[in-house]
Predict the 3D structure of the following.
Amino acid sequence: MIIDSLENYIKYSSVFKINEVFEFLKNLSPTFENGKIEIDNDLFVDISNYHTIPADSGKLESHKKYIDIQILLHGYEKIGWSPVSHLSLNTEYDENRDIMFYNTPDNFINFMTLTPDLFMIFYPDDAHMPQIAVNSPAMVKKAVFKIKI
């Protein structure tokens, strides 16, 4: 898992398709319509609005086929993180949706606050719990870039 400031993205330019993500991001604004946008064969972005939720309603998830780069366009949210190796599976892997869910442990979960000036990268061995309210539920707009492994 990586969390860093948007201004530091160039540090990761040798990593997978980060340059394509940030080139696309230059033209992205909170007024962009929701939905999936194909960038190339190995990269797409899903843009969505939603209300954040309490942590006890969140679900830890991970993916096998894609790396996530999550960037908020508007609002604030917490995202929980835990290494997959510390978790027990709750829902089997769904190959069509490229997602599996885990039981929420009493420990081994760390929460970080995502703001519009930061980005988070989640690899397949990073379970993450997105959409968590910072103080109280609020509307956010997020771009989740999916990079095929």
In short: The chain has one domain: 2-148. The chain is about 5% helix and 50% strand. Residues 18-25 form the longest helix (8 residues). Residues 2-148 form a domain with the Jelly Rolls fold (CATH 2.60.120.370).
